[in-house]
Design goal:
The structure is a homodimer.
Chain A: H1 12-25, H2 46-49, H3 55-61, H4 65-73, H5 79-97, E1 100-103, H6 105-122, E2 133-137, H7 164-171, E3 175-180, E4 192-193, E5 197-198, E6 200-201, E7 204-208, H8 214-221, E8 227-232, H9 238-244, E9 247-250, E10 274-279, H10 282-294, H11 311-314, E11 327-330, H12 341-356, E12 360-363, H13 369-380, H14 384-393, H15 424-446, H16 449-452, E13 460-464, H17 480-488, E14 492-499, H18 515-523, E15 533-539, H19 545-562
Parallel strand pairs in A: 2-3, 2-8, 11-12, 11-13
Antiparallel strand pairs in A: 1-3, 4-5, 6-7, 8-10, 9-10, 9-14, 13-15, 14-15
Helix pairs in contact in A: 3-5, 5-6, 8-9, 10-19, 12-19, 13-15, 13-17
Amino acid sequence: MANSITTDKPHWTALAAEKKQRQLESIPHEWIVTPPSDSTLDVSAFPETCGLLNAREIEITNTSVDVLLEKLACAAWTAVDVTTAFYKRAIVAHQLVNCLTEIFVDRALARAAELDDYLKTTGQVVGPLHGLPISFKDQLCIKGLETTIGYASWVGQYADENAVLIDILIECGAVPFVRTNVPQTLAWPETFNHVFGRTTNPYNRSLTSGGSSGGEGALVALKGSPLGVGCDLGGSVRIPSAFCGLYGLRPSYGRLPYYGIRGTLDGQDSVLPVLGPMANSVVGIKVFMRAVINTKPWLNDPLAVRKKWDEDEYNLVDHGGSGKNLCFAIMWDDGVVVPHPPIRRSLEIARAALQNAGHKVVDWKPIKHKLLGDITRDIWNAGSAEEYMITTSATGEPLITSMGLDVANVTVASFRPQNDGITAYQLWQLQKLRQKIRKEYLDHWKATASETGTGRPVDAIICPAAPFVATPHGKNRYVDYTAVWNALDYAAAIFPVTTVDSTLDGKAPHAFYNDFDKDVYEMYDPEKFRNAPVCLQLVGRTLEEEAVIRMTEIVDAALLAAK
Amino acid sequence: MANSITTDKPHWTALAAEKKQRQLESIPHEWIVTPPSDSTLDVSAFPETCGLLNAREIEITNTSVDVLLEKLACAAWTAVDVTTAFYKRAIVAHQLVNCLTEIFVDRALARAAELDDYLKTTGQVVGPLHGLPISFKDQLCIKGLETTIGYASWVGQYADENAVLIDILIECGAVPFVRTNVPQTLAWPETFNHVFGRTTNPYNRSLTSGGSSGGEGALVALKGSPLGVGCDLGGSVRIPSAFCGLYGLRPSYGRLPYYGIRGTLDGQDSVLPVLGPMANSVVGIKVFMRAVINTKPWLNDPLAVRKKWDEDEYNLVDHGGSGKNLCFAIMWDDGVVVPHPPIRRSLEIARAALQNAGHKVVDWKPIKHKLLGDITRDIWNAGSAEEYMITTSATGEPLITSMGLDVANVTVASFRPQNDGITAYQLWQLQKLRQKIRKEYLDHWKATASETGTGRPVDAIICPAAPFVATPHGKNRYVDYTAVWNALDYAAAIFPVTTVDSTLDGKAPHAFYNDFDKDVYEMYDPEKFRNAPVCLQLVGRTLEEEAVIRMTEIVDAALLAAK
């Protein structure tokens, strides 16, 4: 990463304006469309009706990852065709929900053309992802491009080399083609910053697309990308996946190579960020994970775990081996904040579908979720204020204190740093306490063997990804339905279940755990959340990515069968 | 772990004296021997000549782990016989080199008797380590016993439960039978504390047994235990293994379960301590690692890596697959401190033996070892001074500032904390720099593929474990030959090569890298190190335990063949 120029640096507003102008110029003029007015909230159908994409391009962009790869491998569709189709749809998506940061059409099409040549000349694909366009959250450095993670202060900092995962995906034959929007500092579950502005939800633009991988969520939901890579520190892959109706995976620490990412809280070695895939099908998640792990990422990233893709684990050898008669545990709430009615209903749908498919369903008893969430925030906040201050003070860029529409006047949300940092010794005491709770939670899980009837502990937990669906902007203020699994380092996947239905999802009064729970309850009104996707989360144990993917497929099939 | 009583706590001298008295009373009177006078430096033959052990007990205690397990499994030797034999020899060893802390004969023999009954009744062994006595460094909590890690302040703190590894080994059929001495704070490469005093080297009692697992090193060297478990944060398994002529393994973070250990710098989540086996044969190391990993320790320790024991990796599938034509790289020195002549000679012996066995040997070029060592110390020292102060201030116990014979008058050694701690943000910056160097080192290793002639990068590095053999007490002041591999999280094994020979190992002047290098050179005099074992270290990459064990077997066989 080239050093920033700290002398003679322009004011942050100038940097942001100049970058935004360059972004605009990077869009081919012929791909500019006339989007619906702001009062049109649901724009999900627009890419197919706007006229920019022809029928074949619509077909290509509606195709799932596995079929795309088959068509590419047999040259039924060229990489240039596929990249062009997704690029056009991505640019349309951007004009609807403002989801992109870096746009580099020529470079992506040149790469696609190389792949086509290779296949034509050799008769072989370059690798298992031959010709597949992949989008990336604005953290994954690509040589020659800027990576601002939403800081105006970092405009003009061009990467000297690719992130390790980018190199691996290129080795696999993929076509990196766009990067996507994030919140300033990344430490928000919504997506807004001073450089690129706000990303909105394609199903209802008055709602957030989530964050911090919110650009990715919105883009994939609009099928502007077949596969996106986000980053998850406390839910940043899963929250936008859930809010945008996608499949998404939060792998365990080190299962995917993280080296070369521009992150937040760099050097924080405790509750670690991880990269994870987001897609419109669970098969996309599987294909991606298997391809990347099969390249042995530990040869190129010192923190990547030396653990092969394990077909036995995918075939659930540690869970009975057949994929039948599994025992799922539903966590109806976390004991802190009760989920809104659509979430409750989705859990009921999942329970019925799984029971119909012959699986057992029990209740999950959460333990110490509040404490886990608090400790995790305290660990992140141990040095975050100093980091943000140093980063933004280079240009005088204001630190954003809310994701709300009226940025200046909204109260600071509860998960912003409240202190000036602590000592290393104090940090160690927090980390020590966290390890103790991780042990308690593991033992708690193991002890469920007595109630499953399978002879095994619960195979997976099914729980909300948030106590609500996509919220109005600035209102997503609770991330512990995802963050606790980061603290425990459990593999977790998001899958879609339904959408908000005002007739089925009326207000449902309940006793409150606390004042915040009451606030969350009072936010609910089915009309406000009209058309929002409702997703759930499936949680396995540490480094159980293969089993989590397989069990998500099983749940997905059960939901489909129950429809 | 029960809380310490902070009110009405006796003075530390009273606590230490009372504990030492209890230790003395725990030794069966009939096992008290008359050890040679202090002027007898080499006491390694004494256990077999002192008359306490009969011929069968001598045979048992001279038997390697694999054969012991066979004899136990077929009931040729009972667990009570084997435990009694090792216990007697351990107690003799203790009277020679002061290596034990907790002694619990009745409990161990009762456990052994249970195992014998089980085998007799069922015809089956309890597990793969049936009847094997195992000794433990004074960090691995055993229910009902104290774990002081050399702090007088912690006398009287009894464990409420076993460390996870203890439970696993019991499940495997092992017999925990003694615990062994450590330095106060654990953060020294020698072994001395205010409670139990100093452990000396069985081959020359004027020399240290190393540390911090120095009690374990001395005990196993005297064959008072067939297998010991130490803990390695910066070399604490490998240094005593090397100084005492043993095989020892430093696994990667999380390969063995660490939960339930009383450690130092608890909550420090960056450069992590790991448990590791120490034995008189490499097969002992293998048997132990395979048995423990096959119990799936990740089900009981949230930090244990979900990675099965991999026979393919043991069979070197990633290293050509045959165990032949490997390429080893010898690191003659680390660019900071030049090793003493016996170490140099042992590297030459290893090179010749490997070449004779048909392997290729190239030179290893160390990069940034000084920086890695410095960063690692800075990370540990970020909060260590505060931890030590809080622990010792409970009773007024003085913090030991040297491992020298005259504790009060020796200068503070260079690796003691020099500061009062840093902030969490400052710690993150150190950790970030360390990750960058880990990446550089991994790339450096990968790039050796161009010089090996095998098509692969170097298969393993062979290097000193320290720039010297066991030093006089208080003189072991350089641990970076081991600590850099902790910082890089590379799996590393110790194996014996030769012993110091005054005719072959005369002084050998050389240019000095720096003043410290000169100091180390000037410490050398072959007479001073008479009879000391000379060991080397074999280093593989992260989570390559299986391959490191196999390659150590290959080197060991080559050395034997060359004798």
